[in-house]
Amino acid sequence: MWSHLERGSSPVDWCESNYSISPDIAEFVNTISNVLFFLFPPVLIHLFQEYAKFFNPAINVLWVLLMVVGLSSAYFHATLSLVGQLLDELAILWVFMAAFAMFLPKRYFPKFLGGNRRHLAFYSSVISVVSTGLLVMHPKANAFALMTLALPAIGFLCKELNRVKCARVYRLGLRCVAVCFLAIFSWIIDRMFCDTWLYIDFPYMHGVWHVLIFIASYTALVLFAYFNVSEERPEQKPQLKYWPRNDFELGVPYITIKHPCKKDTHLAI
Question: Is residue 13 part of an annotated ligand binding site?
Fold first, then answer.
């Protein structure tokens, strides 16, 4: 059991040369490239105060889970231990499942749920627990299995964008999808063309993936938060804004409520 905590015990090793920059950190760039996972979520918790107060406080769970993803990923790439790998992958899985339970439009709910989001959250938790066991049993295939979750997420995002009437939200959605595909492309070429990156002395595309996938992930969560209010409480008039300047669309996006009213308790999970 303790051997799984040892450095290098993971079967996964990314392109970056091990211990080439620091004698204490296996993949230095892949480790520090997780910094956005620590810097942005506290800002997002602050920006989403109104959303959490008047619509769904569970949104903060997602921001905390993103921090857990960053911490787990940094630990994994610093040690390349099997425990680190599993923590990294499980954190990603739980972010996906929490977002699914929170944001899946009710028009897609199976009939047996009766439109109850709490029931969806329960079944999503059960699936997450079972999937956790499968990830632990087959660590070599985990990264590829998790990558397939991005496809339906992008599909849902595109489908919702086709329904949206706000041009500002639509533009953010297009940027999100573009960054997501760039992130996936970075992940693939790091795996497939490692020798080429080593030859040109830039084996850091997985670090680029970390930066891009964080931007794509939190942007997607912001968009789904907007869609969720628009569908379930349209009278609250959600608005997409940017920090620090609302007229600068490359800032940090967040959602405010134009007509606040007391939230429905059944929305929280």
Answer: yes
Cα–Cα separations (whole angstroms), residue 23 to 44, 207, 216: 34, 19, 32
Annotated binding residue at 27? yes
- How big is the CA angle at 115 (ends 109 and 120), to the nearest 5 degrees? 65
210 is in an annotated binding site: yes
Q: Binding residue per annotation — 63?
A: no
Closest to 15 in 3D by CA, of 23, 1, 27 = 27
- Tokens for 203, please give them: 């084996």
14 labelled binding-site residue: yes
For 216-255, the pLDDT digits (tens) are: 999 999 999 999 999 999 999 999 999 999 999 999 999 9
Asked whether the whole model's pTM tops 0.70, one would answer yes
- Beta carbons within 8 Å of 128's beta carbon, 6+ residues apart: 93, 94, 97
Q: Annotated binding residue at 77?
A: yes
89 is in an annotated binding site: no
